[in-house]
Amino acid sequence: MRLLCPALALLLVPLAQAEPLAPLPSTSQGEGYAVLIVSRERLEVATTCEVALYVHDQMAARLHQGQSVSFNLPPGRVSLRLGLTGTGPCQDGINQLAGQSLELQAGEVRRYRIAMGSDGLRLHAAPMLN
């Protein structure tokens, strides 16, 4: 046992003097993508109906009052559309959005809120929360 400890210590000396490894290049998880956050505030759209969010003409989310959703999207042009889902009063009275386009850059984060305008539901830019 007495011989084992000094022998082990001698083996560790070269490791302690080895040069540190070069740091790995940074590859953050979101690199090459943009983040789009869409929220439906409680008072912006005065309806209990779900609001459907379409990304590139495919339903991507259904939002109730107070909910938000986020997407990691590739950079470039993104087409968005809003509409109400459900039956009865959820289909009447509020026009579906004809469409909005955004140009997203890699690494950016954009936040939008759903609001009611004279032409129906719209996405409006919202400040980022700290």
TrEMBL record:
Secretion signal span: 1-18
Keywords: Signal
Superkingdom of source: Bacteria
Protein name, as recorded: 3-isopropylmalate dehydratase
